[in-house]
């Protein structure tokens, strides 16, 4: 058997285990830094497969490492497994139907992401065990990607210091290798404290924290004209102070997410927003506490690794879908708006009229950056990194939607997950057998820094925080 047949055979033999683990993580739907059961399910499989597992690494209870092999090169395979709050949804149906009102759900496919990475690590392990290849494959259990920047904390704790290359993937509606960058971001809480009073009898004695939040938001909205065009600033009022309109609210809070192409740009906007918050506090006679939550860096693409990954993807081909899978995808697409469908074609006329993408997108020489953010960015600043996207959803499926949760246990999402495992495994083995590619990737990686040293964007005194603590 050639290497593609070997890897495919290993993953095929264990596919039921991988599917069961993915479906179990989908059911658990645990949010950032509270993925205790999900992490343990993955750890148990890795231990059974002969990996040396280290739990609770980097001071994060749900982060773990699982290694097999010895010596260099060390290839990191990144897995995620956290869900989103408020995304509960029944699987396999074509209408919104929460399993639990206000419950969690896998609206970004991390049940698939973590297990696709698991399949890759296991396949590489089997090849290493049977061959005389030198090197180590290390699965990184990365919690809290959604709003937590788990990998950024892991980088800060030095967990990638002896790694040569990092590889990962993301479930999506296309087959492609990611070639662009992403936006860096900061997430910050602004907590205002004032003085309560009766809003009709003695409003002059009150100091409204809610007024401060509203004035801050107005100020930031005026700021938008005067920051870099590619920046994005979002906010959510997380505490209005209460439900009584006849009370001058003594407390209120707003959460800001600030994005820009580079960390330095985010930092500048962050300080300007801080000044606006302080100004709002002065205008209302209140006080403001600025609480840094998390951050992540922009991603440094690596053309060398991207070419290797795309080459392996091309040799392997793309997932093939049955008539039944096509029909289910068609039903899902009927629930989408025309805007959603058009937004996902990527100007590719070959996708018009299709329900599931059926080809590998050509390798992009130009680097098209995405408007989103990922903590993979911080990994890419300390080690050369590559990632791909594999079809797991109907074309047009928006991220963080009920449709994405509903498709998370379909046969075509499982196919995409297992296929991603093959792509990453083949890429890993290519790098292990041709270490000169790793050296080439490292040279490019150094050039990409443009003389700028990596500085973790999260201050040293800020610790990972579960959603349950933030909601208190």
From TrEMBL:
One of its GO terms (molecular function) is para-aminobenzoyl-glutamate hydrolase activity. GO terms for cellular component: cytoplasm. InterPro entries: Amidohydrolase, Aminobenzoyl-glu_utiliz_pB, Bact_exopeptidase_dim_dom, Peptidase_M20, Peptidase_M20/M20A_hydrolases. GO terms for biological process: folic acid catabolic process. It comes from the Bacteria. This is Peptidase M20.
């Amino acid at each position: 058997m050639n290497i593609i047949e070997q890897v495919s055979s290993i993953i095929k033999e264990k596919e039921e285990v991988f599917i069961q683990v993915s479906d179990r993580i989908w059911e658990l739907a645990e949010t950032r830094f509270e993925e205790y059961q999900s992490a343990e399910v993955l750890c148990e499989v890795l231990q059974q497969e002969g990996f040396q597992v280290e739990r609770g690494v980097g001071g994060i209870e749900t982060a773990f490492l699982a290694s097999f092999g010895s010596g260099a090169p060390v290839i990191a395979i990144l897995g995620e497994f956290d869900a989103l709050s408020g995304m509960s949804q029944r699987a396999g149906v074509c209408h919104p139907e929460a399993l639990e009102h206000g419950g969690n759900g896998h609206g970004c496919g991390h049940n698939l992401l973590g297990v696709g990475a698991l399949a890759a690590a296991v396949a590489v392990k089997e090849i290493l065990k049977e061959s005389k290849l030198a090197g180590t494959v290390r699965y990184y259990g990365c919690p809290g990607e959604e709003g937590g920047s788990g990998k950024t904390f892991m980088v800060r704790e030095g967990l990638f210091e002896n790694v040569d290359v990092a590889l990962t993937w993301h479930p999506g509606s296309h087959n492609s290798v990611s070639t662009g960058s992403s936006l860096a971001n900061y997430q910050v809480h602004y907590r205002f404290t004032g003085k309560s009073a009766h809003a009709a009898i003695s409003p002059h004695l009150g100091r409204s924290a809610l007024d401060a939040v509203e004035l801050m938001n107005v100020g930031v909205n005026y700021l938008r004209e005067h920051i870099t065009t590619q920046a994005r600033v979002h906010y959510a009022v997380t505490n209005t102070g209460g439900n009584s309109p006849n009370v001058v609210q003594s407390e209120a809070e707003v959460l800001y997410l600030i994005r820009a192409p580079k960390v330095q740009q985010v930092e500048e906007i962050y300080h300007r927003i801080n000044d606006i918050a302080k100004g709002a506090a002065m205008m209302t006679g209140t006080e403001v506490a600025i609480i840094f939550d998390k951050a992540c860096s922009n991603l440094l693409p690596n053309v060398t690794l991207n070419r290797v990954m795309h080459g392996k993807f091309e040799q392997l081909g793309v997932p093939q879908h049955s008539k039944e899978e096509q029909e289910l995808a068609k039903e899902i697409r009927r629930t989408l708006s025309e805007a959603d469908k058009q937004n996902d074609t990527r100007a590719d006329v070959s996708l018009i009229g299709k329900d599931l993408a059926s080809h590998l997108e050509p390798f992009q020489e130009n680097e098209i950056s995405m408007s989103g953010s990922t903590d993979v960015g911080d990994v890419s600043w300390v080690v050369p990194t590559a990632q791909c996207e594999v079809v797991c959803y109907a074309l047009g499926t928006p991220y963080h939607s009920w449709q994405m949760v509903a498709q998370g246990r379909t046969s075509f999402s499982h196919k995409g997950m297992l296929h991603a495992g093959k792509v990453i495994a083949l890429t890993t083995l290519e790098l292990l057998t041709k270490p000169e590619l790793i050296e080439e990737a490292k040279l490019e990686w150094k050039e990409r820094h443009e003389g700028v040293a990596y500085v973790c964007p999260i201050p040293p005194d800020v610790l990972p925080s579960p959603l349950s603590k933030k909601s208190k």
